Amino acid sequence: MKILDDYLRQLPIALQRIVGHVGSLFLGLVMALLMSYVLYRIGLPSKPFIYVAF
Q1: CA-to-CA distance for 25 and 18, rounded, in angstroms?
Q2: The pTM is what?
Q3: Torsions phi, psi for 47 (to 5 deg)
Q4: 21-42 burial string, b = 16+ CB within 10 Å, else e?
Q5: Rounded to 10 degrees, what is the CA torsion of 22, 25, 31, 36?
Q6: Which among 6, 30, 26 is positioned nearest to 16, based on CA atoms?
Q7: For 8-47, what is each residue's pLDDT tens digit?
Q8: What pLDDT is attached to residue 18?
Q9: 48 compared with 24, residue with greater pLDDT
């Protein structure tokens, strides 16, 4: 991480802000997809309906 941090500090301030915003947006999208998948899996029944009916 130190190598990446040193590289980012060498960039101009405007480009640092853009990279920060893009990284934040990407991380937010990944977290949203992960949370939606977790909530989807929680909502599924533990047994398939076919086994519950018999």
Answers
A1: 11
A2: 0.68
A3: -120, 145
A4: eeeeeeeeeeeeeeeeeeeeee
A5: -140
A6: 6
A7: 899 899 999 999 999 999 999 999 999 999 999 888 877 7
A8: 95
A9: 24
